[in-house]
From TrEMBL:
Gene3D superfamilies the UniProt entry points to: Cullin Repeats
Organism: Perkinsus olseni (Perkinsus atlanticus)
Transmembrane stretches, start-end: none
Record domain Cullin N-terminal: where: 64-138
UniProt record similarity statement: Belongs to the cullin family.
Domain of life of the organism encoding this protein: Eukaryota
Record's protein name: Cullin-4A
Chain's gene name: CUL4A_4
Length: 140
């Protein structure tokens, strides 16, 4: 077998093992596991929807979420969904939930009846609108 030899002019030839081997670096590729067809819908119903609703103060708020998944577990679920290219499904579910929440706020405002001739009722109505707006901004 021919061995690689390091040679410099004026010196004796010396065998060097590093000249014989080559180190090849390849990029590390991670292929996410295949998800079941209903994974996004199931994850949404089991943990993500409740977390979104709690962040908006629905269902008793964040304090009432004891016994459910931790923030880290929810993060991993969302990360898994996004890495599998199914982020649009999650986006649609999130968008529907947000529309539902905003619709409930608008509905609560529109259900208030106000007598135009009574200034106190009009002020109460405006206060109700302002409170709803403040709650919405706080929840975001």
């Amino acid at each position: 077998l021919a061995k690689s030899i390091a040679y410099r002019p004026g010196q004796a030839a010396v065998y060097h093992p590093m000249l014989e081997r080559k180190l090849i670096l390849k990029p590390f590729q991670v292929h996410p596991p295949e998800l079941p067809a209903d994974f996004v819908a199931e994850a949404w119903e089991k943990s993500l929807r409740g977390a979104v609703r709690a962040s908006y103060g629905c269902d008793g708020g964040v304090e009432k979420m004891q016994g459910s998944k931790s923030l880290e577990e929810r993060y991993r679920i969302v990360d898994t969904i996004c890495r599998n290219g199914r982020e649009l499904e999650l986006f649609d579910l999130l968008q529907r939930e947000l529309h539902s929440h905003i619709f409930s706020i608008v509905k609560s405002i529109s259900e208030c009846e106000v007598d135009d001739s009574d200034i106190h009722e009009a002020l109460e109505y405006l206060k109700h609108v302002q409170d709803a707006w403040k709650r919405h901004r706080r929840d975001l």
